[in-house]
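> call design_seq(struct)
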């Protein structure tokens, strides 16, 4: 009987898996309605006092997404003031959803990576993930990989979709 040969393992094919950089526990949300009267009314003096009394150390080394869970109409400075308190602790603060903060995390990580291992090699941008990698992140990743890779495919080795091939 012939031995089964894993041709993928023997090839120069490189896998770029965005899940390897997923921000497990590093991205959190902060709902500012917790500091509003009944979740809707911003009384500046009370708001400032509550922010001053908050333990911000829980957000150390985190990417923080600021949002308001209620339909409160808030001035822009309310989010900016919360950010002022977070900045000494958090790595990054955004006004928006947790998904936007995850995208910001990936943009920062992907901008800092060394892509020399992928130089002139065929690369698979792994597409099947167990974690919720936002679609926008794949667009960021392909921009980085296209600059160095010989070719880039999306998916898995058994069913990859060609995206790019250097001419």
């Amino acid at each position: 009987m012939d031995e089964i040969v894993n041709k993928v393992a023997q090839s120069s094919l490189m896998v770029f898996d965005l899940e390897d950089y997923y921000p497990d526990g590093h991205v959190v949300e902060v709902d500012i309605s917790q500091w509003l009267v009944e979740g809707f009314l911003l009384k500046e003096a009370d708001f400032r006092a509550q922010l001053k009394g908050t333990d911000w150390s829980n957000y150390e080394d985190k990417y923080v997404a600021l949002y308001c869970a209620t339909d409160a109409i808030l001035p822009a400075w309310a989010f900016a003031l919360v950010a002022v308190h977070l900045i000494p602790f958090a790595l990054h603060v955004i006004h928006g959803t947790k998904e936007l903060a995850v995208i910001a995390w990936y943009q920062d990580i992907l901008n800092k990576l060394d892509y020399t291992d992928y130089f002139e090699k065929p690369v698979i941008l792994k597409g099947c993930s167990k974690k919720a990698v936002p679609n926008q992140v794949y667009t960021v990743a392909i921009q980085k990989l296209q600059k160095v890779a010989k070719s880039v495919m999306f998916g898995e080795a058994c069913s990859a979709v060609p995206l790019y091939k250097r001419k």
